[in-house]
Design brief:
By secondary structure, the protein is an all-alpha fold. The protein is built from four helices and no strands. It folds into two domains: about 1-50, no CATH class; about 60-99.
């Protein structure tokens, strides 16, 4: 997102070129970013470049998406594994680990 906030920079131009030219299955930075955004159900890189968020909004959006993803993954594991039925979980706290 820092690069997206500098549309006149060389880095921005390289990033946009890679977004449009790189194969989605390649091992480039843009394809990896695309996969991460897709995993956490966030907007595509093109959408993020069109609507550039402030740093605080982006951090909050990514944190919420990340927490939702890991909470859903945790719930799926709890439901699918028979040995997890002995674990009593009142509420899942992804963002606040036990000390």
């Amino acid at each position: 997102m820092n690069i997206a906030r500098l549309p006149e920079s060389v880095e921005y131009k390289i990033l946009t070129r890679q977004l449009f030219m790189a194969d989605p299955d390649s091992k480039t930075l843009t394809s990896k970013v695309r996969k991460i955004l897709e995993t956490y159900n966030l907007p595509t890189p093109e959408e993020l470049l069109e609507e550039v968020q402030t740093k605080d909004i982006w951090k909050k959006m990514f944190k919420n998406a990340s927490n939702d993803y890991w909470e859903n993954t945790w719930r799926q594991e709890l439901a699918s594994q028979s040995t997890m039925k002995y674990l009593q979980v009142q509420h899942l706290v992804v963002d606040d680990p036990h000390n």
